[in-house]
Amino acid sequence: MISEILLIAIAIIVGLGFNNFNDQRKARNLEPKILHEFVVSLNSDREDILSNIKTHKKEIESSFRLLKNKTKTLILSKVILVGHIVGRI
């Protein structure tokens, strides 16, 4: 009776050990795939970020050109206004 219980306990321990070994093997086999997907995702994110930076640089340059032209227009308008005022005096 005790030997049967001992045999069952040993079988359970061996079965759990084998199951644990099998789970670890699956995890080791899955790890390179996950790392590869992670690297691919990081590279994609990097390209997206670089593209966004390029686009935003162009938008900033356009905004500066617009502000520069707007400033010139405002100065010219003030000069014309002052000319009209001085001409009336």
- Beta content: under 5%
- How many strands, which pairing sense, and closed or not: the largest β-sheet? none
Q: Specify Rg, calculated over alpha carbons.
A: 38 Å
What average pLDDT do the residues reach?
A: 87
- Which residues sit in consecutive blocks of at least 5 with pLDDT less than 50? none
Description:
This protein has 89 residues and is mostly helical. The protein is built from 1 helix and no strands. The chain has one helix at residues 2-88. It is rod-shaped.
Entry keywords:
single chain; 89 residues; mainly alpha; 1 helix; 98% helix; 0% strand
Report a brief summary of the structure.
The chain has 89 residues and is mainly α. It is 98% helix and 0% strand.
Secondary structure blueprint with pairings:
Layout: H1 2-88
